[in-house]
Amino acid sequence: MDGHEPVTGVSSGPTPSAATRFRFSVGAVFVLPALALYLGFTILPLVAVFTFSAFHWQGLRLAGFDALANYLRLLAPSMLRQEIARAFFNNCIFFLGTVVLQNSLALGLALLLHTQRRWRAFFRTVIAVPFLVNPLVVGYVWTLLLSPTFGPIAAGLEAVGAGAAIRPWLGDPDWVRPLVILINAWQWTGFPTLVFGAALAAIPEEIFQAALLERASRLQVLRAITLPLMMPTLGAMVVITFVSCFNAFNLQYAVGGVNGAPAGANDVLGLVFYRVAFGGDLNAIGASSALATGTFVFTFAATILLRHMLARLEERVT
Amino acid sequence: MIRARPAQRQQAAATGILTLYALLVLGPLVLVVVNSLRSTAAIYARPIGLPTMDGIANYAAAWSQARFSTYFVNSVLVTVASLVVGVGAATLAGYGLGRYRFAGREAVGSFFLAGLLLPAQLGVVPLFYLLRALGLIDSLAGLTLIYAAHTLPLSTFLLAGFFRQLPVELEEAARLDGARELRIFTSIMLPLVRPALMTVIVVQCAPIWNDFFYPLVMIRSNDHFTLPVGLSSFVDQYQSDYGGLFAALVIVSLPLILLFVLANRHVIAGLTAGIGK
């Protein structure tokens, strides 16, 4: 079946010899340590979450089979439901802002970077540096930079006589959402830029030259050639952005603490999940497992839907 | 020549915009380093200024009083141990999957691959009770097992690919000379994938070093904090020690940036050396 498979001994005869059969099991033995680790510390906990969500818990004690009651309790009118709804809304805003800002910025930067010869490697390296910084650190850095009392941005405004515009930006519910999107974009815009750059480099140069011969304008080339050819990459980036925005935790924790301050404007599903799971509620295991399963099902379904929609869009454009 | 001029001007404009962007990216990081070398009083008086000698005191305070030395050692221990266990297991598995045929190999390969799509963090509550049952809450060993397990899908996938690409002749020759399975693995295969191993280690290093979520949940005592949790507890405790906080931010971030600057060359050298053979 695997003609290309470089397995020795198999090709020597139609029936495997005793020695080859021995090697078969040797292969399985090599896999065992990783399989045990993976099963125990990744798969088992995920299966357990799914199972736990169907039970009612009193601390660590199983208090009975609950079917969907944990899920229904999350949806019943309560403080928790309000928090989940608000966090979900914030995740959506975070995703929408990020996907538009970051990808359009990155597309522009990638096109500019494509024109560079001498400095391309340098810019690529600089763009990638923030990836290495912990999002938690990024959050603290920008909290310091945006401080109204000693931050350089406030000082700059003061210096140009615009001191009246200074406010505790990250402590203001109206400002914090767009600012967190910007801070996140500061860290990650380089990622789609590099990916788009690779996609641009993969487009054959002849196509552009042919378009230039036909006196196509720069904008026409972008709309008729570059963008359609880059649609699969753009689509993949939208999906990646979606998944990472719904997994957000560190940056929001650094900016607004575990409660997503100010006034929950910075609260996201990851923080709600953490509070439910480790906040000391008697049914914490049941409730958090239902929330985790629900989040997983939602992001999984939304990812599939998103990919489907993007594929449709791609068909229409190309 | 005349037609080239507008193109040149456009290219210069592009370089200008990119330079502006590079400054926007690097500026805040430079400012953090500069402010980490200024006293809190100086930062209060003027947000931007030149570093001074007494700024070293920030690092001394963060390193010893705020216990960043402990957190640093813990982070190094956990990262190194996780890489040894995780990449070690993935190397064996990648070898098994890449070079042998056995019943269920395809299924096992896909099973590892599926892990790339699973949000492993959602399993944190059962994982917490699992570690508690094993007596591994508030221990670096517990964190190590989690990280090692979570790196497996990507590492195994990459390494199986590398092993698969190796030429079959060397292995056959060794087998004719009577080499045993383990000997073939250690003296022939392992040296050949060393560049690939470096790549995998570099890729897996940053997520482990930067992880905040698991130590936040699993670690209780100061003695076992890694840098990210140590940093967040520092922020909660010393809210107005801005000089110290800037120094702490540098201590958390610099090792990774340095490592990548150094390892980048190493990885590229390793890869080209592999091609040269």
Q: Specify the helix fraction band of chain B.
A: over 70%
Major sheet size, sense and barrel closure of chain A: 2 strands, antiparallel
Rg for CA atoms of chain B: 24 Å
CATH architecture designation of the largest domain in chain A: Orthogonal Bundle
**Helix content class of chain A:** over 70%
CATH topology of the largest domain in chain A: MetI-like fold
Q: What oligomerization state is this entry in?
A: heterodimer
Q: Strand portion of chain A, in percent?
A: under 5%
- The N- and C-terminal alpha carbons of chain B lie at a distance of 45 Å
| Helix/strand class of chain B | mainly alpha
Structural class determined from secondary elements of chain A: mainly alpha
CATH superfamily descriptor of the largest domain in chain A: MetI-like
DSSP helical segment count of chain A: 13
Label the CATH architecture of the largest domain in chain B: Orthogonal Bundle
Query: How large a portion of the residues of chain B is in β-strands, by DSSP E?
Result: under 5%
Strand order within the widest beta sheet of chain A: 1-2
Give the number of domains of chain B.
2
Strands of chain A, total number = 2
Low-confidence segments of chain B, ≥5 residues, pLDDT <50? 270-277
CATH first level of the largest domain in chain A: which class? Answer: Mainly Alpha
Average of the residue pLDDT scores of chain A: 88
Give the arrangement of secondary structure elements.
The complex is a heterodimer of chains A (318) and B (277).
Chain A: H1 18-52, E1 55-58, E2 61-65, H2 69-75, H3 79-115, H4 120-128, H5 135-145, H6 152-159, H7 173-188, H8 190-202, H9 205-213, H10 218-246, H11 250-256, H12 269-278, H13 284-317
Antiparallel strand pairs in A: 1-2
Chain B: H1 4-35, H2 40-45, H3 56-65, H4 68-99, H5 105-114, H6 124-133, H7 140-165, H8 168-176, H9 181-192, H10 194-210, H11 213-218, H12 227-237, H13 242-276
Helix pairs in contact in B: 3-13, 4-7, 4-10, 4-12, 5-7, 7-10, 8-9, 10-13, 12-13
